Amino acid sequence: MAFLNPHDPDLWLLRLAKRLHHGATVLEIGCGEGFEASALALLGLEVIAIDASPWAIRRAQEAHGNSRVRFQVGLWPDDRSTLGKSFDLVVDIGCLHTVEVSLERERYLKAVGDALTPKGQFYFRIGTDELTANANSVRRRPPSLPVWWELPTGETFVLPAPARGWRPSQHELEAVFADAGLRILNFSLVRGITYPWEYAGIAVREPFSESGV
After folding, report:
1. Alpha-carbon distances of 206 from 30, 44, 117, 122, 155, rounded to whole Å
2. Whole-prediction pTM value?
3. CA 61, CA 132: separation in Å to the nearest integer?
């Protein structure tokens, strides 16, 4: 969990969040132990943070119980109906790559679009196999980790290391977002959190007014 949930909040995300108005609403998908969510709340934003792991949510509540974040167990997009509101910012750091079936990716991203306010933005980070500028660089991804799941009864079980995950090229990423009615405003290839290289970007749903960015 420490590897997948670094304690230092994503600086690209904080830069975007500082442009939002005080009291703007934020949803973080797959919040882990809540470090990004807590940092966003400190900026005066109203944050709901969900994660499929009850263990992670419990850790987040223990670590950030005094913050203004509402932590809750939830698996996106199936539990989105329980949230009951729209968001000025939706955040996904390292979750989209786990959706390896194309139709499920489209459903996932369409649900993100439905959750955004008319001028809301979607911040995402996803690992990629896109070639870097240094063609001679050796690209190694970290070893896959086993996944711990906790049942409502408190029982736990361990699944084998997950599959490789979806690591799209720029063209694939743009096409999937477009199919889901989302337009990528900008994205950059950056050193990764989960993978050696990741795309960090911002998308909006169509139609959208550029004046709202």
Report:
1. 24, 27, 11, 12, 43
2. 0.82
3. 39
